[in-house]
Amino acid sequence: MRSIYCGQLNKSHVDQEVELCGWINKRRDLGGLIFVDLRDREGLVQVVFDPEVEGLMDTANKLRQEFCVQLKGVVRARPDSQVNKDMATGEVEILGTSLTIINRSEPLPLDFNQQNSEERRLKYRYLDLRRLEMSDRIKLRAKASSFVRRFLDDNGFLDIETPVLTKATPEGARDYLVPSRVHKGSFYALPQSPQLFKQLLMMSGFDRYYQIVKCFRDEDLRADRQPEFTQIDLETSFMSSDEVRAMTEKMIREMWQSLLDVDLGDFPVMPYSEAMRLYGSDKPDLRNPMQLVDVADLVKDVEFKVFSGPANDEKGRVAVLTVPGGAELSRKQIDDYTKFIGIYGAKGLAWMKVNDRAAGVEGVQSPIAKFLNEEVINQLLERTNAQSGDIILFGADKRNVVNEAMGALRLKIGVDLGITDLDSWKPLWVVDFPMFEEDDEGTLHAVHHPFTAPKGISPEELEANPAGALSDAYDMVLNGYEVGGGSVRIHNAEMQETAFRILGIEAQEQQDKFGFLLDALKYGTPPHAGLAFGLDRLVMLLCGTDNIRDVIAFPKTTQASCLLTDAPSKANADALTELALDVVAKDAE
Amino acid sequence: MRSIYCGQLNKSHVDQEVELCGWINKRRDLGGLIFVDLRDREGLVQVVFDPEVEGLMDTANKLRQEFCVQLKGVVRARPDSQVNKDMATGEVEILGTSLTIINRSEPLPLDFNQQNSEERRLKYRYLDLRRLEMSDRIKLRAKASSFVRRFLDDNGFLDIETPVLTKATPEGARDYLVPSRVHKGSFYALPQSPQLFKQLLMMSGFDRYYQIVKCFRDEDLRADRQPEFTQIDLETSFMSSDEVRAMTEKMIREMWQSLLDVDLGDFPVMPYSEAMRLYGSDKPDLRNPMQLVDVADLVKDVEFKVFSGPANDEKGRVAVLTVPGGAELSRKQIDDYTKFIGIYGAKGLAWMKVNDRAAGVEGVQSPIAKFLNEEVINQLLERTNAQSGDIILFGADKRNVVNEAMGALRLKIGVDLGITDLDSWKPLWVVDFPMFEEDDEGTLHAVHHPFTAPKGISPEELEANPAGALSDAYDMVLNGYEVGGGSVRIHNAEMQETAFRILGIEAQEQQDKFGFLLDALKYGTPPHAGLAFGLDRLVMLLCGTDNIRDVIAFPKTTQASCLLTDAPSKANADALTELALDVVAKDAE
């Protein structure tokens, strides 16, 4: 029905007759002529209907926004004065010679010329996706998937599908359950990741596996989370963590080069401990140059308990952030930042403005200066290398609170004061994570997952000091987002049983939940390692949006609803009877 | 850890030092030497450990089947007398120079040298997949997916993901339901296909969409069905059914060419009515040349009620199958075929052996000859063009019974008697399906689905004679398997409402279930058409197996269980409480 897409037309087509299909993006009547912008997925082109062409004007007169039409016409160059530089096809226009209205449109419930509420956009998603801004994102996503597949195909990875109806796995989040009709009272779980299946594929000898695959988590949703999300999931045998990182770094670098024409360069590698020390975060945004500086040793003996308390607590931390030009912050701004870090549990925000560095203690202004002696202040100025005009912000609390609060404050101030270069790209690898972290009750949890191998130690050494063990895990971080993460996996049964034991999973539970994995480890399991990227996040970054729903064709709300189809919805009673299920309480609705 | 895959070695590598990783496929000790076949995903190579190489034999002596090892060695040509022509690498062998056992293996629970029960193979799937026969299938599947993606990418199709947690849709089979925790008492459904979403994507203007996507049906499983299966799903705008068929036919033809080096040629197009008439099936296996021949008009007036009854019933059919060489069938064989068609509801199998065609009525042998007069028998011989040595088999019953029974019999006899050329490839398109079929209660059901457009008629004409309407639908059939099916879709609200009405879906239910679709049809919907292939079936055909579980890495049993992970399984009580669900009966377990 068409000979070319609207958006592909240019001067090389002048004098050609073309057939186009698309939608009326805009109509204007001018001097007896009717001008329309015709839109298809590749873009817009201007079409002119002229009364001198017979038999067209009646139909053309009926055209309204979003009518779906088919037309023929001749491409002609626009006069210089009418070239539209904002339009890719702006050097040409089509003189219409025939016109068919395929389908009319009622006035739209969305106004394409202004901001619409997200609720409305999601309800009429099929219309929202007509906006070129949105369709460009979905197209870029398709390109990204395609790029990844070709890269991995070309590198010997096999695309192998793993089950969606599977067994509950221990990724740590809540599973979505699917009741079985055949086995009444039993449930499948939707996978949080294909972790165990991809490990089994390595045990089968497939050597290199990948899949772009939907995963599911029934968690309370944040702005950048969805109940179903898409992973680029991969696993390799006989490769070290260095090799896995090198290969996947190459993939991401080439992807950015190919899709954005951006060179990400080599990715620096940073140990977890350094990331926490310098940025208070395991996914530091390196577009922001500010770093935290530890000063506990300087304030151990001051009278100010707010500082000396954490400074003398082995679980405490005292660290400062020196903000260039921050001395100009108003009292109000500082109060706002104090409130901001309160979200993270920080009880206050001590500060010290450096008005005149050369004047030493005389040159600083701070409500807490009186609690610190001159020597301490001088040491602080020296260690932070603060300059005139800077402000020094203090975090002093439990280590976790300082890291979270000061880490978040660093990000916020970086953007607020224009310190962060938002147009740059800063990737890195974070490595050497601890194997386990302790919760408030002193229970150990896996930082990655229970199948992650420790780095360079035996099962005995791991059991002797689990809290001190590092894992052979790695996260890829880009502009402060964790875009991918993975690890070398445990490939022998003894180590796996040790890891389970440390996590409090006793022998019987090991058998019930992971018997098949422990079995499989007995039959010549190869060393293996892998990684999973969050495709939604990668595409979000590629598109330059921070709303994950903008890169998903049919996303769900933060209430896990689809406003378009009105899912979830009531099931009919027969279906529930067949599943032997009863809904016992509806009050939470 | 390796420099090359085992299976890639050949004479060009002679004298090179290589590093290999893999599994001990077989070990033999001979004249003081130890020979092993080392296996990786690309194949096998023979490695020799010679006592003259120092410090290796102790380790080599420990090798057992399925040990995972890393080794170095030098490639050398085998003497002519020892070349193994059955082995891709059989012209060379490796002289081992170093050997590390990465992981030992206990004796396997599967015997790779003999047939194992499918139950055992599924329980130890990770081991079963080590067999080259199985891993080759999974690799061919990956190649097939990759081929499809490249073809569709190159033809302007966009890979767009649609939701897995969605709303119940009316594909006709039972949905898998997923209880919502946030909206207690409500359920998502897993998609039976992305049908409505892909139509919405056309309404959004994406023009060409595809996805290789998991779909779900909670149906009682047959040998070639799985609860989750994979579709190559595609949809286009502004293309006619001819164009969609031409493009997808090209894809399958090029796929067979590329993966099997087989030329499928042009696909013939056959109306549904002809397929039913000639083959009793809407997915005829054209590798079998036998056709059904209608003879109702010949037996309308015979006394034999078994024939004359259906011959005079407008819902009846009397048809014969002439089997070349079938006069040699024994009484026992004919009895077995009679039993076989009993499965399809046929009450008996009348037959007539043509012992001597030239002798006319005298030359036939048949228990029913006495009920037919000479003229009828002569007419039968003439119409069937039966030859001496053939047998004529009669089907006389309700049309459905005759079609199913004689269609199945045709397939079975074709294979049993070697009439079907099992080594050939016979694709075709079946088109011009009826829009609706009537069930025993006289209710109309959609033959494809309720969104399929009728062929060349208006909503008024459709409503006036729904039972007579043909749809613009098409199925691709290959060797008797329906490998793909699709249709032109309804693209205006009036026609869609008419179709719903004919199916007994009244206005309120239309709004509740499909309100968003009817809404969407108001805003300039383009004409659109699409198709979905069953990837599992395509790969099954590519692999030459008739067990669909052989082409799925982790399949489920016909009881919808995963024997490897033991899914489905009990959910913990807390999870059910959070979902506000109660299991009300377990007796069906």
Largest sheet of chain A: 8 strands, mixed
Distance between the termini of chain A: 49 Å
Spatial ordering of strands, largest sheet of chain A: 6-9-10-22-21-20-17-11
Q: Kindly state the mean pLDDT of chain A as a whole number?
A: 94
State the largest interface: A-B, 123 and 123 residues
At the first level of CATH, what is the class of the largest domain in chain A? Alpha Beta
SSE class of chain A: alpha+beta
Uncertain stretches of 5 or more adjacent residues of chain A: none
Shape of chain A: globular
Overall number of domains of chain A: 3
* CA gyration radius of chain A, whole angstroms: 30 Å
Q: In the CATH hierarchy, what is the architecture of the largest domain in chain A at level 2?
A: 2-Layer Sandwich
Keywords (chains A, B): Aminoacyl-tRNA synthetase, ATP-binding, Cytoplasm, Ligase, Nucleotide-binding, Protein biosynthesis
GO molecular function (chains A, B): aspartate-tRNA ligase activity; ATP binding; nucleic acid binding
Main location (chains A, B): cytoplasm
InterPro entries (chains A, B): Aa-tRNA-synt_II, aa-tRNA-synth_II, aa-tRNA-synth_II/BPL/LPL, Asp-tRNA-ligase_1, Asp-tRNA-ligase_1_N, Asp/Asn-tRNA-synth_IIb, AspRS_core, GAD-like_sf
Structure description:
The structure is a homodimer of 589-residue chains. Chain A has 589 residues and is of the alpha+beta class. Chain A has three domains: 6-103, OB fold (Dihydrolipoamide Acetyltransferase, E2P); 134-158 and 192-269 and 427-544, Bira Bifunctional Protein, Domain 2 (BirA Bifunctional Protein, domain 2, 2-Layer Sandwich); 288-416, GAD-like domain (Gyrase A, domain 2, 2-Layer Sandwich), CATH 3.30.1360.30. In chain A, strand 20 (473-478) and strand 21 (481-488) form a beta hairpin. The longest helix of chain A has 23 residues, at 132-154. The first copy, chain A, is globular and about 95 Å long. At the A-B interface, strand 1, helix 3, helix 4, strand 6 and strand 7 of A face strand 1, helix 3, helix 4, strand 6 and strand 7 of B. Strand 8 (186-189) of chain A pairs antiparallel with strand 23 of chain B, so a sheet runs across the interface.
